[in-house]
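Z., the sequence and structure:
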Amino acid sequence: MYHIAIVEDQREYYEQLQAYMEQYGEEHGFSFRVSVFHDGSDILVDYKFDYDLILLDIEMPKLNGMSAAEKIREIDERVEMMFITNMAQYAIHGYSVGALDFVMKPINYYTFSLKMTRAMKRVQKKQQKPIFLALSSGAVKLEAKQIYYVEIQNRMLHYHTEVGEYVLRGTLQRAEELLKEYPFAKCNHWYIVNL
């Protein structure tokens, strides 16, 4: 199941996007959990690191979509973002925050579907990219979701996973680099935790 956030202040559009998400999921075999926020500031309160895709309106009353995207990008480099806008002149600025694409209002399903296909390919690619750990006994292939946390003890990295513990020589900085595309956070000098 993929977690999608819709950040849109106009009821007409967030309801339309929810209906399109449901239709797209049925047509393409995806299961979506959709969270709706009515302003850019709302998604930032208690931000969840499990969003796969965020659909952001640019014009909103308190915190516009562009500013919200900049703040999200500061804390989450992994999530895909797509802007929903009626102002084409602002859409180009979306690329400065790594937005994948933009959908123009009024939204039609055909265009939405094409853009979602592109977004879902990127989301799936990120989720399927394996993590390889080079152990003395050979390489181990893991998915990011299998790793609970990584700790360092005496210059040895301990990967605590759902299939056991793997130990290899390295630095926490190297582990951070390996896991930077995934929702991991450094809690202190000794731990990186899967959010």
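The chain has a mean pLDDT of 89. The longest helix spans residues 109-128.

Let me know what you think.
H.
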